Amino acid sequence: MADKKAQLIIEGNAPVELPILTGTVGPDVIDVRGLGASGHFTFDPGFMATASCESKITYIDGDKGILLHRGYPIEQLAEQSDYLETCYLLLNGELPNAEQKAQFVSTVKNHTMVHEQLKTFFNGFRRDAHPMAVMCGVVGALSAFYHDSLDINNPQHREISAVRLVAKMPTLAAMVYKYSMGQPMMYPRNDLTYAENFLHMMFNTPCEIKPISPTLAKAMDRIFILHADHEQNASTSTVRLAGSSGANPFACIAAGIAALWGPAHGGANEAVLTMLDEIGDVSNIDTFIAKAKDKNDPFKLMGFGHRVYKNRDPRATVMKQTCDEVLGELGIKNDPQLELAMRLEEIALTDPYFIERSLYPNVDFYSGIILKAIGIPTSMFTVIFALARTVGWISHWKEMLSGPYKIGRPRQLYTGEPQRDIVELKDRK
Ligand code: SDX
C-alpha cells in the first residue's frame, strides 16, 4: 500500500520523506503520521483535504457523482434492494442471500420494542420540543438500559448493539412524533416490513389500525436507503471520534444525531421546505438567488452544494425520480412546492455563480417533498435522516473498533498569547 513516497522540503530542515498510500479507487493519500518528528503539524480546518481513516464501507467520487456502498452503486441498491438488505451490506460487507436476509429481518423484528421505562423519558420534554432534541435525549438514554452489551471490545456486544440500534430507531422516532402530537405511542408489529412498521407506528392509533399503503411504504424504504451512509461526513466523523474514546455505541449515535441536526448537514432537508415556503412563488426566485450569492447575506440555497460532490449528487437524481413516482401514484398533480423546487433548480443551474462553484441539488433538495407527500411533518424530516443514517454510523463505529485504532486527538495552530505571568487583582488596570 505504500510503495510511493512524497518528499517535503522544509527550509532549514532535512527533507521529510512521507509514504504515499494507495486505496482500491480514489485519490492516494500522503501518510503524515511521521510529520510530527519534523516539529510540524498539517493544518486543514474543516478537513478539506484530510483522510481521517481507512474504510471499506462507502466510496464517493465527487467529480463523477458516484456513490458506492461496499462497491454497489446507490442507484442499483435503491432500485433492486430494500433498506434491511442495505443495512446487512453496510454492516457485514456483502449483500445477504435469502437465508441470511430472512434471519436478519427476523432478528431486527425481535428487537424493535424499547424498554417500557423509556416512555417516562419523554415526559420531561415539552410537547413542542424540536423532535431532534428529543431524539438526542432518548437515544443517549438507551445506554442506561443495555448494561449487558456495553463492552465495546466484545464483538458479540458490538453486533447486538448494532442490531438494537437499527431495530429501535423507527420505534423511537415514531414515539417522538406521537409525543409531539399528544397521541398514544404505538407498539411495533412483527407482521409488517421495516418501512410499513414505521408508518404504522407513526400514523395508526389504538382506535383505528389502517392498512399501510404499499406506495408509501416503498417510498419510505427508498428514502431510508438513500440516507443510509455517506463516507466520512460530519456526523459519521463525530460518531467515529466519540467511539475512539471508548464511549458506548448508544452515546456515540446520540453524538451523531446532534451533529446531523445542523442546517449545513442533515438539518437541510427541513430547511429546504422552510426555504420553499419563504420563496412562496416562482416570481420571488430571483430575489432569493441574489440573496444566496450576496456575501453579506448569510442565506444559502438550502439543498444545494456539497463538500464532495462537484457534480450531481446521485441520491438527488434518484430522489427526484422517486418524487415523480410517489406524487404520480398518489395522484398529486402540480404539487406547488415541487414545481417551485424544479424551477429553482432550473434557474440556479443556469446561473454562473452556481455553475462556477459546482453547486448542484444534494440529497436534501427533493427528499422533503416526498416526506411531505408521505405525511411526515417538516419538523420530523431530520429525525427520518437520523433513523436511516444510524446503520451507516454504527457500521463505521463497528469497522473502527474491529481493528487497531487510536483515540482521535487533533492538534492546532496556536495564535493566542505567549506565556505571561498573572498580575494580582489589586494591580490590574
Ligand atoms: C448533507 O458530507 C456529506 O456527505 C453530507 C451529506 C450526507 O449524506 O451525510 O451529503 C448530507 O449534509 C448534504 C448537504 C446539506 N446542506 C445543505 O444543503 C446546506 C446548503 N449547502 C451549503 O451550506 C454548503 O454547500 C455545504 C455545507 C453543503 C458545503 O459547504 P463547503 O463544502 O464548506 O463549501 P463552501 O461553503 O466553502 O462553498 C463553496 C462556495 C462558497 O462561495 P465562495 O466563498 O467560494 O464565494 O460556494 C458557496 C459558498 O458561499 N456555496 C453556496 C452554497 N453552498 C456553497 N452559496 C449559496 N448557496 C449554497 N447552498
From TrEMBL:
Pathway: Carbohydrate metabolism; tricarboxylic acid cycle; isocitrate from oxaloacetate: step 1/2
The family this protein is said to belong to: Belongs to the citrate synthase family.
Record flagged with keyword Transferase: yes
Molecular function via GO: citrate synthase activity
Keyword Acyltransferase on entry: yes
UniProt xrefs under PANTHER family: CITRATE SYNTHASE
Enzymatic reactions: oxaloacetate + acetyl-CoA + H2O = citrate + CoA + H(+)
Protein name: Citrate synthase
Annotated source species: Pseudomonas farsensis
Keywords from the UniProt entry: Acyltransferase, Transferase, Tricarboxylic acid cycle
